[in-house]
Amino acid sequence: MTEALSIAVHAGEFDRVHYALVMASAAAASDRAATLFFTGRAVHAVTRSNDQPGWHALAAPPDGAPARDQALRARRIAGFEELLSACVELKVHMMVCEMALRAEGLDAGAAMLRHDLALEVAGVVSFLNRGARGALLFV
What we know:
Distance between the termini: 24 Å
Mean pLDDT: 93
Radius of gyration: 14 Å
Helix content: 25-40%
Largest sheet: 5 strands, parallel
Number of helices: 5
Oligomer: single chain
Strand content: 15-25%
Shape: globular
């Protein structure tokens, strides 16, 4: 196995989170261990609210995240859900920051977190000790 890739995903913008998913899934498909640590406003990418994926609330001017996702898929670029599924299938380690959840007013124990993603709720120390290996990117 080659050098691992760890990505701290902080930005609340659709394109940045989407590309972090691209990088993590590509790393895992290339036989690299990959970790995604969702923090800041990016925690919304791994939540669900009112039967809508939380990533719909990520910033994506001018028409919003769902429209941006649709435009990418129309150009034969993997959509957000497809990338999340690829990350799960490729065994990307996904962590979500406990402090960021509190900062965003989200409850880690509630049904807000997506159960299909095998998320580990953890703090920065846990990410640095267990998750962050190899190259570290901050998005």
